[in-house]
Amino acid sequence: MMRRYGRWVWLAFLFAFAAIFFYFEMSALNNDGLTLSRFIYNANQAFPLVGVLFGMLSGGLAVHFFWHWDPAAQERIRELEAEIARLKRQGWA
């Protein structure tokens, strides 16, 4: 089911994140509150390595989610998908 609707689910999450971010940023700008850019500026003034640590964190997450480091695993996934399709044709699944 996730393969069928996965793109739409991630698109919905992205849209929800953007809408929530937009709401809080507009609320902060309208009420003279703390925006994200001001928060980052204040954090860097208090501890200059915040930007570096945030970069390491976001880079590590990007590598974790998007780097296909094991080609053999990808081949095994294709084999399993073919086996599932074969079993469905035979009426097992």
Write the layout of secondary structure elements.
Blueprint: H1 2-30, H2 36-46, H3 50-66, H4 71-90
Mean pLDDT: 88
Low-confidence stretches: none
The topology string of helices and strands comes to: HHHH
Shape: elongated
Rg on CA atoms, Å: 22 Å
Q: Which structural class should the secondary elements be placed in? A: mainly alpha
Beginning-to-end CA distance, first to last residue:
14 Å
- β content, as a range? under 5%
User: Sheet with the most strands?
Assistant: none
Helix percent band: over 70%
Count of beta strands: 0
> Structurally, how many domains make up the residues?
1
Give me the number of helical elements: 4
Question: What would your notes on this structure say?
Answer:
The protein is an all-alpha fold and 93 residues long. The protein has one domain (2-68). Helix content is 83%, strand content 0%. The protein is built from four helices and no strands. The relative contact order is 0.04.
In a few lines, what is going on in this structure?
With 93 residues, the chain is mainly α.
Q: What distinguishing features does this structure have?
A:
93 residues; single chain; mainly alpha
